[in-house]
Structures are given as structure tokens and as C-alpha cells.
Amino acid sequence: MEQGRAHRQGMAKGSKPVPVRALANPCMIKWARERANLEMDSLRGRFPRIEEWESGKRMPTVKQLRMFAKSVHVPFGFLYYSEPPDETTLLKDFRTVEGKPIRKPSPSLIETLSVCSIRQDWYREHARREGLSKVRFVGSLSCGLDPEVAGKKICEAIGSDFDSGTQGNFSRAALSRRIQMIENAGILVMISGVVGNSNKRKLDIGEFRGFAMVDTYAPLIFLNGNDSENAQSFTLAHEMAHICLGVSSLVDSNPVTSSNLPETEKWCNAVAAEVLAPISQVRRRYSEDQSLDMNLEKLSTHFKVSRQVILLRLRDCEIIDGEAVKQKWRHERAQQPRLSKSSAGGGDYYRLKTKRVSKRFADALIPSALEGTTLFRDALHMLDMGTMESFHKLARARGLE
Amino acid sequence: MTAATPPGARIYLLDTNIFLTLRRQYSRQTFVGVWDWFVQKNREGAIASIDLVWDEIKDKDIREWLTAEKFTFGGPTTESETKLREVYEWLQHSNYDQGSIERFNGKADASLIAHAAASGRIVVTEERKTRVPGPGEKEQPPHITIPNVCKALDVGCVSCIEMLQNENAKFILGKDPDQSENSS
Predict the structure, then answer these.
(1) Residues B106-144: pLDDT tens digits?
(2) Do A77 and B56 make contact, defined as CB atoms within 8 angstroms?
């Protein structure tokens, strides 16, 4: 038995014999570094021998390897693989805005997809355990259906108030309400601007603005919290349309302004526009007496969507013709999107946490962990939390303890 | 209590969730004997765990207890490293769902199995084998779990209650030592 050897007891790091060298694969160390888009120089400070590790001349100690894995945000085990794993299996069901599969995903995107996938899996099991019914919308519509009709169906099912940001003037409040309504309909909605808890690792809206993971029991929508609130609203509605089609999607560019759209994406855009700013309402609120600019401003503020979306709506209403749209479009496109400052707004950590993991998810997971059906270790992992103390605080914040 | 562990007896390596289960399900105030059993077994060297599991235990009270009782959380050894590589290589070419392999890769689980494999010890975990899809349910690659991997690599794996039963632990109602002081 190894009883007497260099065994750590509690936190006491006693004297050690020669530290154990990791039996990692040098190629995988290199792969991991490149996957994180890091040059050797940037890591040499923390890991002076990294060059030797990658060439295989020398192996890191296990402790060093663990630290390295953390630095490059790679699952530790990958460093022992004989060849790079296929990380795209998680992505294979997604279509981007231009209809293509996801190209080279960043580690941040991969991690985000991964944790959302874990939560989805848990929730699906939970739904089955509890005998919850399937979510009706999933796969309930097809592209053949007129977008206006489709939009109406969605509004009816979610709550007819979806279009109106009429309560108050704030985009943020409108977004919150829209999210709440979609969650009430059985869909998990998660919003975050960072990976896990790390304030340093921001999610790049240039890479993705959101995604939808289709599932009959646990459909899920993720929104990149760094996007403006109006843009988030649109992504939300666009992904909602995807869920109704039953097709998973990743919004990588602005779906409204992208060219080369396949039919599916055009349809989802049209449905999203109808849901957020129904044509009948747009027609009613448009003033002939005011200039196009004033109308755009007014309608955009009322419906809490971007001016571009309103422009498209006006075209759909046939209030303005294609040529006018084109001209105005170029002008609008040149404008910088207003980035949301709200993600930085002080505010309660636990409220933020709930938004990040989805209210519906949190309210299901917490009781499950408290009653012992779900292990705390797993619950903490899915909540991106490190301590039981914070878990209990979250539970109390949700009124579950 | 049980006699000292004879040589060649089973040694158990505990997973993170065992400690959490203890804390949550078997409150120390009520299940005094259970906690004493763990202390006893630790002194005999019949139970232990690994450093990565220690890192995963977040509960302050548990950590205090483990430190006070000097529980062993072993670090990596040359033998466990060799086994670790075998575990990961096996994983890589297995039929499990890639997503769940990735999660497995980030936790203490593989190292726990490797340690057990290297030293002939038995893994103790509350994880259960994966649910097999029922009739009519879509065939998906199964989620990976510790018991599944242990079975494939021929490493012993039991649940907490199975460990207690294997070791013939019996917790019999006796007089509460605190109370008997007051009643006289």
C-alpha cells in the first residue's frame, strides 16, 4: 500500500519527493495552445519550458499540466489523447445565418455550447422524470406557412402582448418581458456576455449573437449579452422561429442585414419581424405626415427593434418601395449598432446568475439538488458556481429555501 | 466497532459526491455512527481519496472535518499516471457521446479510476450506470459515467451503501451519550 507516501492531507502541502511527470502527449499540448490562439511567448512566463514540452524533450509535472490546461481552457484529459478530438460533433446540427455549418469555433463558443448542452440534457431528464409534457412549438411550423400567419400563431401561443414594448420606453424592460413570456411557454432562455463566471472572457458578438438548440422537452435559446437589447430581442424572436421549425441555429452575423440568405433564414427573419412588430400595428402607427426618418425613429422606439427591422416592415407593408428601401438601407447599415451598456450595470449577482442559466432551469435544478435527486457537485457545475454558500444564496434569492 | 483492517482487505477510493451525500443525506447530528465509521475506516487506512476530489469539495464544514481527521487525498504517482493515460486513450476511442466525454475530461473522475486501477482499490461513487434508451426512444450514444468506465476497465466500483454492506457495517440504536448525562 502507498499509505505513507507523499499524500496530501487536507491542505497541508508537506515536503515532496520528486514530482510525478505527466504522461501527456506533446502534440496535444501544442494543439491546445493553438486552439486557444496563443503564441508560445505569451505562455513562456508561466511555463518557461513550454517549448520542450511541445517538442517532447521534457514532460511537465502533473501539477504544471493541470495549470496549463486551465490557462488554455482545455479539458485536462484532451492533453493525453493520441490525436485531437472531434469537437465539432456538438456543432453538427447547427446552421448559421448563411446556411453553412459553423466554421472554426473559438474555445469560448465551444464552452458555452457545452455548458448549455449539459443544462439541456439535465432539463430533458428532469422533464421526463416529472412527467412534464413536450413543448408544443418545437417543430410545429414549416417554411411553407405564410410568415405573417406563423408570426400570429407564435404570438397567440406565447401571449399576444409580445409585440408591444408599449409598457415603458426601455428596451431592457421589453427584452425582459419577452424573455419571460418565452420561458413561460416552456423554453429555456440563457443570456450571458462572458464564459462561465469569468469577467475576462467576453463572448464575441462578431462570432455569434445567439443560438438555439432544438429539443422536444428542453428547447433552449442562448443570447449573447454583449449585443444591444434590440438586437437581442431580434435574435430571440429569430431563434424562436427556428425552434418552431425544429432546426437548431447559430446566429453568427446580423440576420437582418446579411445577404445571401437561404430560404429558411429569410422565413425566420420574416416571422421574427412579424412577432416583434406585426404588420397590422406598423401600418396603424405609420404617419404619412412625418418623414421616413421620423417614422423609423418612432416605430423603432415603440416596438423595441432596430430601425432596419422597421425598414423591412415598411417594405412588407408596401408603404415604401424597394428602391427607397435600398437607399435607406445602405445608410442605416453604415450606422454603428448601439452596444448595450446594461451588461455592466451593477445589480444583484444572483439576479445576473439566474439570467445566465435561465430562470426556468434554476427553478427546476435547485429543488432537485436540495432533495437529493441531483448531486450538488453537478448542480454547482451547471450553475457555474463554486461554493455551497453561493448555492444557498441563490436558492434563497429564488425563494426556494 | 469493526476490528482493524486485516492485510489484503479492500481499500476504497471515494468520489466527491460521497462526501456531499454524507453532508446532505446523512446529517451528522442524526447519523452519528455513520460518520464515526468513516473516521474509523480512515484510521485503518481502508478509505482514501485523491487530490482532485479534494479540489472539488467546496463545503467548508466537510473540509474542516476532513482536515481534522487527517483524511488522505493522494496526489499522482507514476503508476496512476500510466493508468490515467490508458483511461483517456480508451475514452477517446469509445462509443460515448462526445459532449459527455468532454465533461468527464474536466473532472476528477478519470484520475480516480486511474488511481484505483493502479493500486487495486475500489471506487465508491453515487453515480449510477447510464440509462439505456427505452423502446421507441431515439438511439443516442450513451452518456459516460464512472460505473460504466470502471466496468469496461475492470476496476471495482460500488455505491456508498454497497460499500457499507460489503464491510458489514451495522448501525444499531443505542443510548445517546449526551442524553444519559442528564437523566440520572
Answers:
(1) 788 999 999 999 999 999 998 887 655 555 555 566 678
(2) no
Do A9 and B73 make contact, defined as CB atoms within 8 angstroms? yes
Distance of CA A132 to the CA centre of its chain: 24
Question: How far is it, in rounded angstroms, from Cα A371 to Cα A185?
Answer: 26
Tell whether the torsion through CA atoms of A181, A184, A188 and A191 is positive or negative: positive
In Å, how far is B108's CA from the nearest CA of chain A? 10
Q: What is the pLDDT of residue B134?
A: 52
Q: Do A85 and B92 touch (CB under 8 A)?
A: yes
Cα(A82)–Cα(A97) distance, rounded to whole angstroms? 35
Are the beta carbons of B67 and A118 separated by less than 8 Å? no
Kindly provide the residue ranges of all beta strands, DSSP E only, lying in A110-176, ordered along the sequence: none
Query: How many Å from the N-terminal Cα to the C-terminal Cα in chain B?
Result: 27
First to last CA, chain A: 45
Q: Which one of A5, A62, A117 has the shortest CB-CB distance to B99?
A: A117
C-alpha cell belonging to residue A27:
502534440
B138 close to A (CB below 8 A): no
Residues, chain A, total?
Answer: 401
Residue B55 per-residue DSSP state: H
Tell me if B124 sits within 8 A of B159, measured CB to CB: yes
Contact by Cβ (8 Å): A343, A365 = no
Mean pLDDT value across residues A70-86: 89
ipTM here:
0.82
Would strands A220-224 and A188-192 be described as parallel, antiparallel, or unpaired?
parallel
pLDDT tens sequence across A199-219 = 889 999 888 999 999 999 999
- Residue by residue, DSSP assigns B1-33 as -PPPPPTT---EEE-HHHHHHHHHHS-TTT-HH
pLDDT for A155: 87
Q: Give the lowest-confidence range in A160-174, A290-304, B56-70.
A: A160-174
DSSP chain B: -PPPPPTT---EEE-HHHHHHHHHHS-TTT-HHHHHHHHHHHHHT-EEEEHHHHHH---HHHHHHHHHTT-EEE---HHHHHHHHHHHHHHHTS-S-HHHHHHHHTSSHHHHHHHHHHHT-EEE-S--PPPPP-TTSPP-PPPP-HHHHHHHHT--EE-HHHHHHHTT--------HHHHHH--
Angle, CA A7 vertex, CA A6 and CA A8 arms, to 5°: 120
Judge whether B11 and B122 are in contact, CB under 8 Å: yes
Q: For B43-56, what is the mean pLDDT?
A: 94
Task: Please give the single-letter amino acid code of residue A313.
Answer: R
